[in-house]
Please model this.
Amino acid sequence: MAITILFLGPLRDLAGEQEREVAAPLDWQGLLESVGPQVADQLQQDRVNVACAGTVLADKTALAALDGDEVALLPPVSGG
Model:
């Protein structure tokens, strides 16, 4: 079925959309291929986190999203 990828913050601007549905299952390599080169470049940086089914992954390269899961791409938090 499907997995929803959520693009948050500046990653949404790079992707040109807020969310995208992709086929399940989804692993790290599949995620990189699904989001396009600009977002994939950002995802490979340590400062960008990935959450799957509401849990931030300690090792985002271990992503194993299943049907119905939501994968959120979390840009670094800035504040003042």
Notes: The chain has one domain: 2-74.
